[in-house]
């Protein structure tokens, strides 16, 4: 199996190639305790019947000690169906988490760091990458690329949704006029807000 660092570099090359094609883009500030600590860049590029989503983020904050966190997420659709996805999380230059799903001759092969391998199915054409660009009206499942599992999505109010992860963690999404405005990330000892930067 290839090194996570090589996979991370490969994802960055894919993202660089996507910059050469017309794409929808948006940027979010990462906020902790009312202060900006990082940013998120997202893009959606269409090539024929393929759609590629790329999300890059970085953040620096103190949690026991200084944390420099960088993440990459790529998700590719073919004819509106999730084909492949890949995530990588680096903390202070070392791989902390990663996942990868790709088609094989006998189905979708899933890998979650550090060594869980299984066959999977998204069961829905909605992903967290897609939620940056579209409001998931009427959806009750979203495929989460970091865990490679469909997770429950609850509509809590008009334009507001709560995504529940397998470990009980929750992300809260707020939309206005169909556009994502904010994501609240609630974790133990770490609460972050991703807030859309004005165009």
Counted by DSSP, the helix tally is 2
Order of helices and strands: HEEEEEEEEHEEEEEE
- Strands of the biggest beta sheet: in what spatial order? 8-7-6-5-4-3-2-1-14-13-12-11-10-9
First and last CA, distance: 41 Å
Question: Biggest sheet, open or closed, and with what strands and sense?
Answer: 14 strands, antiparallel
How much helical structure, as a percent, in the residues?
Answer: under 10%
- The 3D shape can be described as globular
Low-confidence runs of at least 5 consecutive residues? 1-8
Overall mean pLDDT: 90
The number of domains is: 1
Instruction: Report the C-alpha radius of gyration, rounded.
Output: 16 Å
Structural class by helix and strand composition: mainly beta
Number of strands: 14
What portion of residues belong to β-strands? Answer: over 45%
Reconstruct the topology from this structure.
Blueprint: H1 4-18, E1 23-32, E2 35-47, E3 50-63, E4 65-78, E5 81-91, E6 94-104, E7 107-112, E8 116-120, H2 128-131, E9 141-144, E10 149-157, E11 160-164, E12 170-176, E13 179-187, E14 190-196
Antiparallel strand pairs: 1-2, 1-14, 2-3, 3-4, 4-5, 5-6, 6-7, 7-8, 9-10, 10-11, 11-12, 12-13, 13-14
């Amino acid at each position: 199996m290839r090194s996570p660092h090589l996979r991370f570099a490969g994802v960055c090359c894919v993202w660089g190639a996507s910059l050469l094609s017309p794409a929808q883009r948006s940027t979010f500030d990462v906020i902790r305790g009312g202060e900006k600590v990082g940013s998120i860049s997202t893009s959606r590029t269409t090539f024929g019947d393929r759609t590629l989503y790329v999300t890059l983020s970085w953040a620096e904050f103190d949690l026991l000690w200084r944390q420099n966190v960088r993440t990459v997420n790529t998700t590719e659709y073919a004819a509106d169906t999730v084909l492949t996805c890949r995530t990588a999380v680096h903390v202070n230059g070392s791989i902390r988490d990663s996942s990868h799903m790709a088609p094989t001759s006998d189905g979708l092969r899933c890998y979650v760091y550090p060594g869980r391998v299984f066959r999977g199915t998204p069961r829905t054409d909605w992903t967290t990458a897609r939620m940056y660009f579209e409001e998931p009206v009427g959806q009750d499942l979203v495929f989460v690329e970091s865990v490679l599992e469909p997770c429950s999505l609850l509509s809590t109010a008009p334009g507001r949704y709560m995504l529940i992860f397998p470990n009980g963690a929750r992300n809260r999404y707020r939309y206005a006029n169909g556009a994502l405005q904010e994501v609240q990330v609630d974790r133990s000892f770490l609460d972050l807000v991703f807030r859309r930067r004005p165009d």
